[in-house]
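Why DegV family protein? Reviewers of the renewal asked for a concrete example.
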Amino acid sequence: MRTAIVTDSTAYIPKDVREALHIYMIPLSVSFGNEAYREEVDIHAEPFFEEVRQHKHLPTTSQPSIGAFVELFETLAKQYDAVVSIHLSSGISGTYQGALTAAGMVEGLQVYAYDSEISCMAQGFYAMEAAEMALAGKHPQEIIARLDEIKTSLRAYFMVDDLIHLQRGGRLSSAQAFIGSLLQVKPLLHFQNKVIVPFEKIRTRKKAIKRIEELLAEDAKLGVPLKAAIIHANRLEEAEAWKQELAQTYPNVEFLISYFGPVIGTHLGEGALGLTWYRP
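Here is what the prediction returned.
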């Protein structure tokens, strides 16, 4: 059985990696006024944040249309028997539901839609492992079982540099954002029950980064191999320095650097920083 792997743009898997692993990507979009841009196609992270600084209002985001899913699945049906379609959390987007709906509209293709219950490179880890299994000829049900296994060890924590983005996106009340800004609060966030929720409130960025390191240490100190990604919102130099420091401390962890792209960056804001890891 030939199985294709699909994910959406919020996995933020670099194009060369997607091509090497034969991962198909369907983009979400951001809109500035009447101008819509497909992320990872029409607009990428760095120019996106430059564009945000030039606008008074934050952009809006939108999921792929069901028609876009149907078109992609019908194309894949010409080459594949099945598709495992892995998407960002259904608690923050209707993308997963769109894949489910489109699956029932395409003939000659078994579509297995999978809710990662998370986003960004944490979601990307699912897609990359699935792709490696698909290339090895594994059955879709074997791939789904492995994704469920990954979910038991996957961790992801991130902090925002400016609370106003969370407030505007409905993730934080105006009062919380105002008080948090006065106190320099850098809330640690994570996904719980498919939605973004506060994990802890930390007073400064330095202390927030230190706390994330402590959370990684809880798993890394066991000595088992881990794969991890540092995720940044237009803070590449800071991410690279952090990677170098962590790699020296935890030789059993394989680190890579990823990024918050336009859609997720809209809600977290420039300067956000995160770390995700799992047991391969």
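DSSP finds eleven helices and 13 strands in the chain. This is the kind of structural detail the renewal will allow us to pursue systematically.
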